[in-house]
Amino acid sequence: MSATAPHRSPQVSKGDGSMVRVLVVDDEPSLTDLLKMALRYEGWDVRTAADGVSAVKAAREFRPDAIVLDIMLPDIDGLEVLQRVRADGTETPVLFLTAKDSLDDRIAGLTAGGDDYVTKPFSLEEVVARLRGLIRRSSITLATAKDPVLTVGDLTLDEDSYEVERAGTPIELTATEFELLRFLMRNPRRVLSKAQILDRVWSYDFGGKESVVELYISYLRKKIDAGREPMIHTVRGAGYMIKAAG
Question: What predicted TM-score, i.e. pTM, was given to this entire model?
Answer without folding.
Answer: 0.54
